[in-house]
Design brief:
By secondary structure, the chain is of the alpha/beta class. The protein folds into 2 domains: about 5-205, Aldehyde Dehydrogenase, Chain A, domain 1; about 210-395, Aldehyde Dehydrogenase, Chain A, domain 2. It has helices spanning about 5-20, 25-40, 40-55, 60-75, 115-125, 140-155, 170-180, 190-195, 220-235, 255-260, 270-280, 295-305, 345-355, 370-380, 390-395, 445-450; strands at about 85-90, 95-100, 100-105, 130-135, 165, 185, 205, 210-215, 245-250, 265-270, 315, 335-340, 360-365, 385-390, 430-435.
Length: about 450
């Protein structure tokens, strides 16, 4: 019989008390081992995730396991997270890092390996313990991964109970964990994130993704199309940072369609066929759960359409009517919505209108060589990330080629009802004590200097 959440918490707290005495060197060795075991077993874990969840692409999951393991560990190497982490002689303030305790990690079926890996690395980097509450559709992955992590902990002389898992997850158990843990990190559907924020404990959740892509005029159209399609296709479209809607200048619109077809996409412009895709993706206005992470051929089959067997992405023209087109929402499968625009400002307006329906706070993607247009979009659009000339689905959560924090949890600020407006990092899972010293040599400004 599986242990209760209360007993898991008891074990977790005892392990965390021991781990809090470890040195920075010992802690970093533990954190490295978590990434390395996922990297070394990338194929095995990808196969397990693909078989259990029945979504996504095996080869892409291998790349994700290897890539995220490498970049997250590289980003954590050498970072101080124990004891004195900063000492400023100018202000007289010393910062001392301390653990938060037990982290309750609610993890999704769309990312059942690298999300708990990332959460565990951040949690243990700060001497916390962690309990995983997996999605029921990925419970075998979570339990197996927990076992791998525990073996690494044991080999390094750390308490095995630093990482535990609810092996038979239910909504009730997950809610109990969120109410009882010291901090909650919730990655999943919006209802789960809302529950995390309602748990009465500090929580880090994520907003809905709905990445709008603006292709600026004369920005290198072929390269932009190649990157957008690669992002939309990756892991059959289940990544929250995956490209969803693309705006192309009207002068390059037909050329873009030809390029998409050349790169393996099937473009649908017939209104009747577009309606079939719309209906099958969003029956009753909700994303069809049977199509999450499924290939383009399966989407077409369920829509009653015939498309070439080699099709990788379905591209449909969006409706320019006054009412928001439901196809401009997040589509968790390789379907992309396409719009022409006359001016860059109009493209930004389309993006903002779509985000107003879903995805405020998350991200947009711009393919442009014009710094002024990039700055204009960044000033106007209510998102926390503007990714420029990159594959959004694979690089938005940090990359060796950009400066974003390497993570699997992307905060969306107040726009997305989130507590942070940046990528979740280890620093969010530590408490900091600050020592403030009296500055003998401080010069107090006069009233005239202050108010003059």
């Amino acid at each position: 019989m599986e242990e209760s959440v209360a007993l898991l918490l008891e074990r977790s707290r005892k392990a965390q008390e021991i781990f809090a005495t470890f040195s920075q060197e010992q802690v970093d060795a533990v954190v490295r081992s978590l990434a390395k075991v996922v990297y070394d077993r990338a194929e095995e874990l990808a196969r397990m995730a693909h078989e259990e969840t029945r979504m996504g692409v095996y080869a892409d999951k291998v790349k994700k396991n290897q890539g995220k393991a490498k970049i997250i560990w590289q980003s954590l190497k050498g970072k101080k997270s124990i004891g004195v982490i900063a000492d400023d002689p100018l202000t007289g303030v010393t910062q001392i890092a301390k653990p938060m305790g037990v982290i309750g990690a609610v993890t999704p079926c769309t990312n059942p390996i690298v999300t708990p890996m990332c959460n565990a690395m951040f949690a243990l980097k700060c001497c916390n313990a962690m309990i995983i509450a997996p999605h029921p559709r990925a419970k075998k992955c979570a339990a197996y991964l927990t076992g791998l992590f525990q073996a690494e902990l044991k080999a390094l002389g750390a308490p095995e109970d630093l990482i535990l898992c609810i092996e038979e997850p239910t909504l009730e158990k997950t809610n109990e964990l969120m109410r009882s843990a010291d901090v909650v990190v919730a990655t999943g559907g919006m209802n789960m994130v809302k529950a995390a924020y309602s748990s009465g404990k500090p929580a880090f959740g994520v907003g809905a993704g709905n990445v709008q892509c603006i292709v600026d005029r004369q920005s290198g159209l072929e390269e932009a199309i190649h990157k957008i399609l690669a992002g939309r296709l990756f892991d059959n479209g289940i990544i929250c940072s995956g490209e969803q809607t693309v705006m192309i200048h009207e002068d390059e619109y037909d050329q873009a369609i030809a390029l998409m077809s050349r790169h393996g996409a099937h473009v649908i412009r017939d209104a009747g066929q577009v309606e079939k895709i719309r209906s099958v993706l969003f029956p009753d206005g909700v994303m069809n759960k049977h199509l999450v992470g499924q290939p383009a051929g399966r989407v077409a089959e369920m829509a009653g359409l015939s498309i070439p067997a080699e099709t990788t992405v379905i591209v449909v023209e969006g409706s320019g009517s006054a009412q928001p087109d439901i196809l401009c929402r997040e589509k968790m499968c390789p379907v992309l919505t396409l719009f022409p625009y006359k001016t860059f400002a109009e493209a930004v307006d389309i993006a903002m209108a779509n985000l107003a329906v879903e995805g405020r706070g998350h991200s947009i993607s711009i393919h442009s060589r014009d710094p002024e247009n990039i700055a204009y979009a960044a000033q106007c659009v209510p998102v926390c990330r503007v990714l420029v000339n990159q594959i959004c689905s694979t690089m938005n959560g940090g990359s060796f080629n950009n400066g974003f924090t390497a993570t699997t949890t992307l905060g969306c600020g107040s726009w997305g009802n989130n507590s942070i407006s940046e990528n979740l990092d280890y620093k969010h899972l530590m408490n900091i004590t600050r020592i403030g010293r009296y500055l003998e040599q401080a010069v107090v400004p006069s009233d005239e200097e202050i108010w003059g």
